[in-house]
Amino acid sequence: MPCCSTDTCSSSAAATGRYRGVLWVVLGINLVMFLVEITAGLAAGSAALQADALDFFADAANYGISLFVLGFDIRWRSRAALVKGGSMGLFGFWVAGNVIWHALNGTVPSWGTMGAVGVAALIANAACLVLLYAWRDGDANMRSVWICSRNDVLANLAVLAAALGVFGTGTGWPDLIVAAVMALLAMQGAMTIIRHAMAELRDNRNKTVPVLS
After folding, report:
1. What CATH number has the domain bearing residue 147?
2. What is the pLDDT of residues 161-175, one digit of tens each?
3. Closest CA to 34 of 112, 133, 100, 128
4. Which residues does 78 contact at the CB level (< 8 Å), separation at least 6?
5. I need a surface site. Which of 14, 75, 84, 96 has the fewest CB within 10 A?
6. What is a single cellular component term in the Gene Ontology annotation (predicted)?
7. Residue 188, exposed/middle/buried by CB under 10 A (0-12, 13-18, 19+)?
8. Residue 196 sits in which domain range?
9. Is 30 a domain residue?
């Protein structure tokens, strides 16, 4: 049993329950937007939209992992954050490869589809960011969720800028540049998540940590 007062335990359980509910909501939002963006990205020939779609899918998987380990002790949550950091890094490498493929094939995406879907994705990710704001300074697992959502909003703004760039230049380079930036953001976020998780694992290696209920 955790060594804490009744009030403290009740408060912790209530906070965990609220966080669990928020994670279910953002999980649903990300799954829906993945389906919307992957369909639109393939139809429009946009590397940025396809990258953003896979980012939605990766985030949905990450939220699912967070839900699974939510009742575990901090060491398990830190290990989950390591998994999420690794998956985020792999996503970054995939996007970089996709950029190279589109560059070699000279793809010019549909800027109208990019703009419309980009606005919808921005609204969805902004809602997730607001819902997760209260837990931005939590443990490595919570921070990883916050970092993913923060990067998503930045990526959506970049997709909208790419749509304008494609419209203005008539080329696919703005789309490719934004997709490349998204790859770098994913890699940077992965490094941050992994660094925090490793620090927590070192700090708690020899500690007995109570399990949240």
Report:
1. 1.20.1510
2. 999 999 999 999 999
3. 128
4. 139, 140, 141, 197, 198, 200, 201, 204
5. 14
6. membrane
7. middle
8. 8-203
9. yes
